[in-house]
C-alpha cells in the first residue's frame, strides 16, 4: 500500500475518535441526544460496580472492595448530578463542542479505571466470582457503548479501552471457558462497532435532512409571511390596505366590546384630488396620494394616548381605527391635525397643488353595536361632511341617524314611485339682463310622494343616484320637458339638468339622443346644464358625452360655476355656451366687495371667451342693476318669477309682453 494511502487511512481512523467541529447542527444534535442518556450510563456503572464489590467483599482486600468502588461510584454520581443540572441550560455551539471534547477525554481514564479495578479483583475470586467479573465487564461495556452511541468517538474509546484489554486478558488465562467468552465478546464488540458506525451515519443523515426540512419550512414560512404582508399592503402608498383595515377594525371592536370601552372608526376623503389627476396626470396624482398618506400616518403615529390604525381604503379614501377609549374631543382634535397637514402645499415639479380633506367619524357604543354598522355610520358622517361641511370633521350623531332613516324611507319609496304621476315639472324663466325678455326656462323636478308629500330635489335626486334610478328618472323627465317646450314660441329655449351618471356612464347619453330625435324639438333650442361635480366625476367620458350633444346642436351650460374645483380648466377644455354663476355670490353682491369682484372677474372671463354668463339667485332690483353694470348676459331668480307649472307659461309670456310693450319681440339666447 502506498505511504500516502496509509497516511490517509490513518487520518480517517483518527477522525473517528474526534468530535466534528465543522458541523454545528450535528454537534448540537449529538449533545442533546447524548446528554439525555448520560444518567443511564452512570447508573449502569454504579449498579454493576456495587454488585461486583459486594461479591468480593469477604475475599479481596478492603481497598479493592470498599475504597476503590466508593471512589468510582462517587465520581459517577457527581458526574450524573452535574449533567442533570446542566441539561436545561441554553448553550452556545462553542460550549457544546467544548463539553463533548471534555467527555471524550474523561471517557479514557474512567474506562481505564473501571477496567483496571476489574482485573485487580479477578485473582481473588473463585470460578463463579471470576465469571461474574467477566460478565460485569462485558455487560457494562455493552451498556456504556449503547449509551454513548450518539457520541461515536467516546463509544469507540470505550471499545478500545475496555473490550480490547478484556479480550486479551481473558484469552491469556488459558481457561477454555474464559477464552470462549473473550472470543464471543470480540465478535459482539465487532458487531456493536458496525452497528455504531451505521447508526451514527444514519443519525448524521437524519440531522442533515431535518436541517434541510427546517430550512424549507423557514423558507415556506418566510414566503407565507411575505405573501400575507403583500396581501395586506397597499402597493402604491405601502400603507395597510382595505383588507387589513377591516381585520384591524374587527379585532379592535371585539376588544372594545369585551373591555366595555369606546372605539372609533374614521373615513378620510381628499377634497379636490380628482381634478389633480385630470389636470396633471395620474403620475402626479399618485405622488400626491403617497405624500398625503405619509402625512396622515405621521399624525396618527404621534397622536396619544390613543392608538390609531391607519390604512388606505382605495382611491383617495383612507380609514382610521382609533383605540384607547377616545371621546368626541379626541376625534375632533385628531381630525383637525390631519386636516391641517393635508392642507399644506404639495410641490411636485412644476405643479403646485393644494388639497383639503373631509373626515367622518363614528364612535362605539354610541353610534352602532356592530363593526359593520359602525363603519357605515362613519361613511354617512363623511357623506354629510362632503355635502354640507366640506373640509371639516363630522362625528356621527342622533341627527345624522335620523337623516339615515329618512334617506332610507326616500330610497324605498323612490323604488316603487310612478314617475309619470308622482313627478311634476316646474319651469323658472331665464331672462335677458338688458331687455328683460324671457330667453328660456330651466326645468325643475318636484316629487309629490303619496306618503311623504312634497320631497325636495336636494333629497330625492341624490337618492336616485345612489340606488341607480337617476338615468330612468332623467329620461322620463326629459320626455315630458321636451313635450312642454314644443308648445312654446320658437325663440324660447329649454334648459335641462343632467347628472354625473347621465354624462359619465357608458352609453349614458344614447337614450337621451333618441329621446331628443323623437321629440321633434330642434336640438338648438335645448341647453343641457352640467355641474362641475358631474364633470370631475369622470372628465374624459363627460367630455366625450358633451362633445356628442354639442355636435347635435344642443347648447352646454356649466352649472354652479365657482363652487367646484379647477373651474378654469373645465372652461378651457369643454365646448361651453354658457356659464351659470352660483347664487351664493349674488346674495351680498352690493354689500360684500369680494363677491362683487368675483362676479366682475367671471363676467370678464366669459366676455373674453365669448361665453354667455347666466347669474342665478337674483331677488332684488338693486342686484339686477349691479349685474347689468358688470356685463351679465342672463338673469335667473325670484325677482322675475318663481318656478311655475307648465300650464302657467303662456300667461306669464303674455303678461311679460304687455309689461314690456312688445309681445312680439324675440330674444334668442
TrEMBL record:
What keywords were assigned to this record?
Membrane, Transmembrane, Transmembrane helix
Source organism, top-level taxon = Bacteria
Matching entries from PANTHER family are given as: CYCLIC DI-GMP PHOSPHODIESTERASE PDEF (PTHR33121), OXYGEN SENSOR PROTEIN DOSP (PTHR33121:SF71)
Q: Which SUPFAM superfamilies match?
A: EAL domain-like (SSF141868), Nucleotide cyclase (SSF55073)
* MF (Gene Ontology): cyclic-guanylate-specific phosphodiesterase activity
Please state every residue range assigned to the domain named GGDEF.
261-398
Q: Which Pfam families match?
A: EAL, GGDEF
Q: Where are the transmembrane segments?
A: 38-57, 63-84, 105-125, 131-148, 155-174, 180-200
Q: Give the protein's recorded name.
A: Diguanylate cyclase/phosphodiesterase
Give start and end of each EAL domain.
407-657
Amino acid at each position: 500500500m502506498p505511504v500516502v494511502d496509509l497516511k490517509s487511512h490513518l487520518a480517517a481512523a483518527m477522525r473517528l475518535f474526534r468530535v466534528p467541529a465543522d458541523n454545528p447542527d450535528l454537534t448540537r444534535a449529538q449533545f442533546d441526544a447524548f446528554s439525555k442518556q448520560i444518567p443511564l450510563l452512570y447508573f449502569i456503572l454504579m449498579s454493576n460496580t456495587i454488585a461486583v464489590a459486594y461479591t468480593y467483599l469477604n475475599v479481596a482486600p478492603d481497598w479493592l472492595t470498599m475504597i476503590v468502588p466508593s471512589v468510582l461510584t462517587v465520581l459517577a454520581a457527581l458526574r450524573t448530578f452535574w449533567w442533570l443540572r446542566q441539561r436545561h441550560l441554553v448553550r452556545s455551539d462553542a460550549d457544546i463542542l467544548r463539553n463533548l471534547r471534555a467527555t471524550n477525554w474523561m471517557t479514557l481514564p474512567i474506562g481505564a479505571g473501571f477496567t483496571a479495578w476489574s482485573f485487580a479483583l479477578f485473582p481473588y475470586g473463585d470460578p463463579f466470582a471470576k465469571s461474574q467479573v467477566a460478565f460485569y465487564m462485558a455487560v457494562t461495556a455493552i451498556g456504556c457503548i449503547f449509551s454513548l452511541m450518539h457520541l461515536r468517538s467516546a463509544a469507540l474509546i470505550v471499545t478500545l479501552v475496555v473490550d480490547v484489554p478484556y479480550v486479551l486478558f481473558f484469552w491469556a488465562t488459558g481457561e477454555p471457558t474464559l477464552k470462549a467468552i473473550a472470543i464471543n465478546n470480540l465478535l459482539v464488540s465487532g458487531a456493536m462497532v458496525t452497528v455504531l458506525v451505521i447508526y451514527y451515519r444514519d443519525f448524521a443523515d437524519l440531522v442533515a435532512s431535518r436541517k434541510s426540512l427546517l430550512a424549507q419550512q423557514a423558507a415556506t414560512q418566510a414566503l407565507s409571511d411575505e405573501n400575507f404582508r403583500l396581501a395586506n399592503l397597499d402597493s402604491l402608498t405601502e400603507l395597510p390596505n382595505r383588507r387589513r383595515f377591516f381585520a384591524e377594525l374587527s379585532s379592535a371592536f371585539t376588544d372594545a366590546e369585551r373591555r366595555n370601552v369606546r372605539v372609533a372608526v374614521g373615513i378620510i376623503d381628499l377634497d379636490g384630488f380628482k381634478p389633480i389627476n385630470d389636470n396633471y396626470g395620474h403620475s402626479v396624482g399618485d405622488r400626491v396620494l403617497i405624500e398625503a398618506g405619509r402625512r396622515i400616518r405621521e399624525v396618527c403615529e404621534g397622536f396619544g394616548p390613543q392608538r390609531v390604525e391607519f390604512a388606505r381604503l382605495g382611491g383617495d379614501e383612507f380609514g382610521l381605527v382609533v383605540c384607547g377609549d377616545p371621546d368626541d374631543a379626541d376625534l375632533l382634535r385628531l381630525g383637525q391635525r390631519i386636516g391641517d397637514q393635508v392642507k399644506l402645499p404639495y410641490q411636485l415639479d412644476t405643479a403646485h397643488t393644494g388639497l383639503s380633506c373631509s373626515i367622518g367619524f363614528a364612535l362605539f357604543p354610541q353610534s352602532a353595536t356592530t363593526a359593520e354598522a359602525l363603519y357605515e355610520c362613519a361613511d354617512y358622517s363623511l357623506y354629510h361632511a362632503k355635502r354640507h361641511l366640506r373640509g371639516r370633521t363630522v362625528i356621527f350623531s342622533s341627527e345624522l341617524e335620523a337623516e339615515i332613516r329618512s334617506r332610507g324611507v326616500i330610497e324605498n319609496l323612490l323604488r316603487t314611485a310612478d314617475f309619470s304621476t308622482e313627478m311634476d315639472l316646474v319651469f323658472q324663466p331665464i331672462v335677458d339682463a338688458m331687455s328683460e325678455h324671457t330667453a328660456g326656462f330651466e326645468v325643475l323636478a318636484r316629487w309629490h310622494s303619496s306618503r311623504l308629500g312634497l320631497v325636495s330635489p336636494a333629497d330625492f335626486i341624490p337618492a336616485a343616484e345612489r340606488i341607480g334610478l337617476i338615468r330612468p328618472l332623467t329620461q322620463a323627465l326629459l320626455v315630458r320637458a321636451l313635450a312642454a317646450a314644443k308648445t312654446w314660441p320658437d325663440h324660447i329655449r329649454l334648459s335641462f339638468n343632467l347628472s354625473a351618471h347621465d354624462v359619465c356612464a357608458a352609453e349614458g347619453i344614447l337614450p337621451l339622443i333618441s329621446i331628443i330625435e323623437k321629440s321633434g324639438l330642434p336640438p338648438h333650442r335645448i341647453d343641457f346644464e352640467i355641474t362641475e361635480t358631474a364633470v370631475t366625476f369622470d372628465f374624459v367620458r363627460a367630455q366625450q358625452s358633451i362633445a356628442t350633444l354639442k355636435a347635435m346642436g344642443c347648447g352646454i351650460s356649466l352649472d354652479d360655476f365657482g363652487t367646484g374645483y379647477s373651474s378654469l380648466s373645465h372652461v378651457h377644455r369643454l365646448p361651453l355656451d354658457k356659464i351659470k354663476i352660483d347664487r351664493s355670490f349674488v346674495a351680498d353682491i352690493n354689500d360684500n366687495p369680494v363677491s362683487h369682484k368675483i362676479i366682475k372677474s367671471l363676467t370678464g372671463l366669459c366676455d373674453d371667451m365669448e361665453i354667455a354668463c347666466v347669474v342665478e339667485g337674483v331677488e332684488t332690483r338693486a342686484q339686477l342693476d349691479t349685474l347689468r353694470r358688470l356685463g351679465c348676459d342672463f338673469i335667473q331668480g325670484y325677482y322675475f318669477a318663481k318656478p311655475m307649472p307648465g300650464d302657467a307659461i303662456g300667461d306669464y309670456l303674455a303678461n311679460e309682453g304687455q309689461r314690456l310693450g312688445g309681445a312680439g319681440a324675440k330674444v334668442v339666447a
